[in-house]
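@channel anyone free to eyeball this complex?
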Amino acid sequence: MKLYEFQGKEIFKKYGIPVQSGFLIHKNDEVKNLTPPLVLKSQVLAGGRGKAGGIKIWDGNTDVSKTINDLFTLSIQGEKVKAILALEKVDILREIYLSITFNKGKSTPVLIVGTAGGIDIEKSAKLNKEKIYFIEFDPFLGILEYQIRFVAKKLDIDNYLEFKNIIRTVYKIFKEYDATLVEINPLAITPHGLVAIDSKVNLDDQASFRHQALFQKLEEEKKLIKDKEDSNTSEPTDDTITFVPLSGNIGVISDGAGTGLLTLDLISDFNGRVASFCELGGITNSEVMLKALKLVNGYSSLKSILVVLIGGFNRMDDMAEGIIKFKKELKNDIPIFIRMCGTKEEIGKQLMRFEHIPVYNNLYEAAEKAVKEARGN
Amino acid sequence: MSILIDKDTKVLVLGITGKSGRLQTEIMKRYGTNIVAGVTPGKEGKEVEGVPVYDFVKKAVNNHDINAAISFVPPAYCKDSCLEAIENNIKFLVISTEEIPEHDVVEILQFAVNKGTRILGPGTAGLISPGKCKLGVHPPQLYVKGHIGVVSKSGALSYEIGKTLTESQIGQSTVVAIGGGPFWGLTQLNIIKLFQDDDETKIIVLLGEIGGTMEEDAAKFIKEKVNKPVIALIVGKSAPRGKSLGHAGAIIEGNLGTAKSKINALREAGAYIAKNHMDIVEQIRKIEGK
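replying in thread with the prediction:
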């Protein structure tokens, strides 16, 4: 789960990382008695907010309600602005970059610090490689003192204790919240000490069982400002389905990501176009299959459905049950091409025969037929 | 020889009394895998398919000769179970469990490195050496003994290729799925190294997918150290950018992890790039002169 800036900063505050004082403005909130200067920041999850004009400084010389209304009309990478964080302005002497995340290639946590903050860290890493430091550390030992001393020296930090304290706290949050990323960009050096100007916190959905109350609270906060039409946010569900809407006319369901990708490539080689792609994920039963079929069936452009099953964990008797339910419930005339094999294949195929639903053995053949059907020949 | 497992592999099943653990134990046992014990806390004294169940790994290893384990433990308890197995000197551990919290995965992998345990997975279908041993969920009927070594990220794709090869009367030495990521114990490179050193493997098939740089790392190794023929199939050529299509690892970010970059690296390393699964068969026939 990606947190909004104000949610991340609430966690920072709770753990003692200095942040600017401020308050949240929702759309249609009445705003009065504001004291300049204020920094007004659109609360969106998309990156590049500053460049898109989502951050404004109000110095008191203009009509603040107009500035606020302007921000509320913005759509940043398709995400509509529904809340604004208003913050006191601070004097910044220097900005640095600080984050803790996982190095996926090496499967270790990594502390990343840069001499320049605020800007696109990936770009600046490319432009100026020597100024960003990647400090991998042992997940059991945590960040060691000498590692912090090293980056503090590289960054010319005056107040070492304060800096160390912030790194230790960021790590504490990273661990205690099951975060996959805790980022402060920029961390500002001000005349009054270090201040986290921004926050980016991503939590691990797979660890939500350890933080149920927290996830519930964060979800409720998000609901208040979430745009219902946002396509990139989906309701949390119990299943593990990955659903990707595309723009063609063939609905594809697979019970494995690898075969799913192979199927997309085959369809593309046959000059077919995929309407949507659905991968069932780790939890598979007849209900999941039924749900997947309903998901891909929800497109008016749909001409055929291709179901590619090759079960290891996944049981073909369960899958057959789901497909039969779909056929019965929806009395659908969209042609479905099913390739079924793997665990409990005999029972699955028998169930399908019983209902007179044809099953293919060969992926190539099933894909070719689904494409031909979609083309109308 | 085959890689990682063979006729002498003696297996401990973690989470043996759960739905998956029970079913897969039955299938593995029927295939001939020597499963000697299982662990589920609170279930000591019970039996699954004639296999004794223990509360703790320590008691299982005290009572039985064990040299490999497979976990079907649910995500919330998986870390504890894996750390217990590693602590008790299990040197090869297959983690089939998916959706383990990332912090837990990183700790499991680090502890395994510290203790010298090889991890396959997490989130893996496991591996099969046809005719000898199966440690995982590969549907046995799709495989037959032979000389092709297959390494895949995706479990399902390793079934697909097993099926395609078997239907074409081409047998396999070992078929390994390493998991969809984004964290891995054994990598494609590690498995290819084992195949290179394995007498029984004559041709290596690498099944990769978009995302990450593991295929590129494997390509570098192939170029420098592998003299057996390598056939590579990279799936996801037609996948949209920036979207995850079911594997956390299979996402294209920027120019990293594209099918093109992987195909170029592998081709440059001397691997044959297969157009699709059927093309792998054609190429094997060509190499074998049939």
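from a first look: The domain at 138-288 of chain B is CATH 3.40.50.261 (Rossmann fold).
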